[in-house]
Amino acid sequence: MHKDGLQRMLDFLDGLREKGIHFTIQQTVPDGIMTFTLVGVRVEATFFVECMEYSVFKGNEDVEVDPVLLEKLIAENWGDE
């Protein structure tokens, strides 16, 4: 039996809860939702009606205080170029 997107997401959330993994639910695209974080890794899993896809963002989670660094990161990653 084919599961719909909502049931797949609910099953997945049950698995995260069983493992004690914190997650938030956000709608970042009009037709899908989900985000969760592991230590050192942020995962955006998007559940659609027919499938699930995900992106993994790795890196350190150091807290920074240098506003110049923040401005540089924004300029390098969100510029109009």
Shape: elongated
- Regarding quaternary structure, what we see is single chain
Average pLDDT confidence is 81
Q: Count of DSSP helices?
A: 2
Order of helices and strands: HEEEEH
Helix content: 25-40%
Give the amount of beta strand, in percent. 15-25%
Judged by helices, strands and strand pairing, the structural class is alpha+beta
The low-confidence runs, each spanning 5 or more residues with pLDDT under 50, are none
Over all CA atoms, what is the radius of gyration? 16 Å
User: What is the CA-CA span between the terminal residues?
Assistant: 47 Å
Strand order of the largest sheet: 1-2-3-4
The major beta sheet can be summarized as: 4 strands, antiparallel
Report the count of strand segments: 4
Structure description:
This protein is of the alpha+beta class and about 80 residues long. The chain is built from two helices and four strands, in the order αββββα. It has helices at about 5-20, 65-75, and strands spanning about 25, 35-40, 40-45, 50-60. It has a four-stranded antiparallel β-sheet. The chain starts with a helix and ends with a helix.
